[in-house]
Amino acid sequence: KSILFLLILVIFALFYIGDALVQHSKEMVLQGFFSNDDYNLFDADVIADDFSNYLNLSSKQRVFFDDSLYVELDSSAEYVVASQGKISAYIAAKELDFLITTSDLAKHYSSKIPLMDLEASLPNDLLKNIGNHLRYIEGVDHKEGAYAIDLSDSRFIKDANYKGETSYYFIIPSNAVISEELIAFLKYAFKL
User: Fold this and answer.
1) Which of 21, 53, 101, 164 could be disulfide-bonded to 35 (CB atoms 3.0-4.6 Å)?
2) What does the radius of gyration of the chain's CA atoms come to, in whole angstroms?
3) Could you give the C-alpha distances from 30 to 76, 181, 191, in angstroms and in order?
4) CB count, 10 Å around CB of 36?
5) Is 97 or 24 the better-scoring residue by pLDDT?
6) Is residue 20 over pLDDT 50?
7) 26-62 pLDDT, tens digit each
8) What is the SS3 assignment for the chain?
9) Is residue 16's pLDDT more than 70?
10) Cβ atoms of residues 147 and 176 within 8 Å
């Protein structure tokens, strides 16, 4: 019985390694994180599949979204510290294209991490459609800028018929690139 168990374990391990190698060989076209999603509004796997279809990605391309992150300010709980570390590491490595989080955490991040001024960075045609959702919050320079987009009217909130008190904001680290895929994600989010 133990040999059969070890054989099954080895098969699973080989499958996992093979899948990881295949996924690693694909071009990452967009990477985003969702944090503090207490209401399960942002199912990363479902959104990644749907958005991949929306983009009509080839078999050699992929998007990656992670909804497992949870951050509480002033908490030293291991999971919270690990989540905060992952967000910080991906931003530092210039691997994170966007973060969707609560309005309170977006305001916290904007005071600690340089965020992209969305009014100055997004295309005018997109701003015409979502400009009223821009949120002006204080940045690391202590000046207000259009560093966030309120997602209250996005497909994620409206389609879920969410009536909660928590607002969710879309933010972009200043070291991210405004790619076609990032613009497409915003259009997808607001059904444009």
Assistant:
1) 101
2) 18
3) 30, 6, 18
4) 19
5) 97
6) no
7) 788 899 999 999 999 999 999 999 999 999 988 888 9
8) CHHHHHHHHHHHHHHHHHHHHHHHHCEEEEEEEEECCCCCCCCHHHHHHHHHHHHCCCCCEEEEEEEEECCCCCCCCHHHHHHHHHHHHHHHCCCCCEEEEEHHHHHHHHHHCCECCHHHHCCHHHHHHHHHHEEEEECCCCCEEEEEEECCCCHHHHCCCCCCCCCEEEECECCCCCCHHHHHHHHHHCCC
9) no
10) no
Structure tokens given for 147: 């560093």
CB 98 within 8 A of CB 182: yes
Backbone φ, ψ for residue 26 (5° rounding): -85, 145
Q: What is the mean pLDDT of the chain?
A: 88
| Nearest residue to 54 via CA among 33, 26, 29 | 29
> So what's the pLDDT on residue 22?
46
Tens digits of residue pLDDT in 56-69: 988 888 999 999 99
d(CA 79, CA 76): 8
Question: How is residue 105 written in tokens?
Answer: 């955490």
